[in-house]
Amino acid sequence: MAAPTADEKYELITRRLQEVLGGESIKAILAEGRSPKAYWGTAPTGRPHIGYFVPLTKIADFLRAGVEVKVLLADVHAFLDNLKAPLELVAHRTKYYQYVLHAVFTSLGIPTSKLHFIEGSSYQLTKEYNLDNYKLCATVSEHDAKKAGAEVVKQVESPLLSGLLYPGLQALDEEYLGVDFQFGGVDQRKIFTFAELYLPRLGYRKRAHLMNAMVPGLAGGKMSSSDPNSKIDFLDSPEAVRKKIKLAFCEEGNAEENGVLSFVEAVLIPISELRLSRLAGDPVLEAGTGDQKPFVGEGAPVGTVFTVERDEKFGGSLHYSSFKEMKQDFEEKKLHPKDLKNSVAAAINNLLEPIRKAFEENEEWKKVEALAYPDPNAKPEKKKKKEKVYHPPPPGKGKNVTPTADPGVVPPEAQGAPELGQAAVELAEQQPNLSVEGSA
C-alpha cells in the first residue's frame, strides 16, 4: 500500500468533522512535507466514559496521517472548573486518565510513537506563561471572556473568577504546546475563535481549529460524567453496559437526540472501518488488543461496515455499508430499537473488554483508581482507642493504700475516743528508740 499523498492526509485529518477553521494552514504544512502538530485537551474531573471514544477515534485519524498529537491532561483547568476537585485529587485523576487513554489507543492498534501526554501544570505554572496570562487579563474584556466560555464553563448563579480565566488559558496552551491546530468538540467553537482573535494581539500566530459534532448521551442531551444514566464508563461490566443500553433513549423512528444511533455513527462505524483497513494491510496500524473483528456479521456483502444481528424469524440480520442507510431504515421503522440496542451493546462490550483486562492486570492502575475516585459510601475507619497500660504505683502510694499512722500521733478520727488515745501512748512507750517522725 503506497504512502498517502498530502491531499489524502488532509482528507484523513478532516473527514467526519463538523467544522474546520483555518484548514489552508494545515494544507500548506502537508504540502511542504512536514507533519502537523495538534493538541486535544481534557480536564481530569469525573470518570472518563465511552463518549471519549468520539475524539479518540478522530485522533486515530490524525496519527494515521502522521500528525504529532499532544494530549493535554489539563489539571490546572480541572482545579479551576468550579473547584470540582482539590489539587491533590486532580493529581490522582490525571494519572488515571493517562492509563485509560493509553489503554484505548493500544486496544485500537493506533501507533502511539507520535502521541504525547502532557500535564498542564508542567508549564502553566511558569513565570512566562503567567506573564502572558496577565497580559491577556489586561487586554480581554469581561464580556468577551464570559462569552467565550459560555458553552464550556458551567454557568452558575454566582460564577467564580476562574471561569473568566479559562478561555485565555486554553488559548495560551496553543502557543506553549507549539501546535499548528487544536481539536475539540463544536461546543468549544467560541473558545477557538477567542484564541484566533487574541493570540495575535500577544504577538503569536493564529492556529487552525478542528471540531467534532457533539454526540448525545444515552438519556438524550449532552453526555456527562456527572450523570451516571447518560454514560457508560470504560470499566463498566458487560452486564452494566447491556442494562444502560437497554434503558437508553431510542424512540422508534426518531433519529434526533438519539445517543445509541449517534454512537454508531461517531464511533462504531469508524472503528469497524479502521479494522477493515487493518485486514486490507494498512501498514500504519498495529495489531491492537482483544477481538479485532470488524462489526460485520457472517455472510455480509462486500462493503458492509456494520451489521445489526437479527433473528431469522424477524427477517435476518441487516447489513449496512453506510450510516446514512442505517439512519434511513431506523426512521422508516425497518430497524427496531431493540435490535439496534442489542448489536450496539455487543459492540461496546467488544471495545471495552481489552481495556477492562488491562485494568485487571495492572496493580498500579488499580491503586490510582482507588485514590482518584474514592467510594463516597465507604465508612471512615474508626480510630482505634489507645490501649491503657497499667503501671502499678510505688510501694505505699496509690488511692487504695491505707496510710500508716505516725507513732505517738493520735489520728483526728480517734481524738474523741479515750481508749484509742491511751493505746497510742502505750505503743509509743514500748518503742523508746524511735523519734516522732519515725526516723532512727
Layout of secondary structure:
Layout: H1 6-14, E1 19-21, H2 23-31, E2 37-42, H3 53-64, E3 68-73, H4 75-80, H5 87-108, E4 115-119, H6 121-124, H7 127-137, H8 142-148, H9 162-176, E5 181-185, H10 189-198, E6 208-212, H11 238-247, H12 259-279, E7 306-308, E8 318-320, H13 323-331, H14 337-360, H15 363-372, H16 418-429
Helix pairs in contact: 1-2, 5-14, 5-15, 7-9, 8-9, 8-10, 9-10, 11-14, 12-14
Strand order of the largest sheet: 1-6-5-2-3-4
Beta-strand percent range: 5-15%
Taken from the alpha-carbon principal axes, the silhouette is globular
Question: How do the SSEs run, as a string of H and E?
Answer: HEHEHEHHEHHHHEHEHHEEHHHH
Mean pLDDT: 87
Which consecutive residue ranges, at least 5 long each, have pLDDT under 50?
434-440
Family: Belongs to the class-I aminoacyl-tRNA synthetase family.
Organism: Lyophyllum shimeji (Hon-shimeji)
Enzyme class: ligase
Catalytic activity: tRNA(Tyr) + L-tyrosine + ATP = L-tyrosyl-tRNA(Tyr) + AMP + diphosphate + H(+)
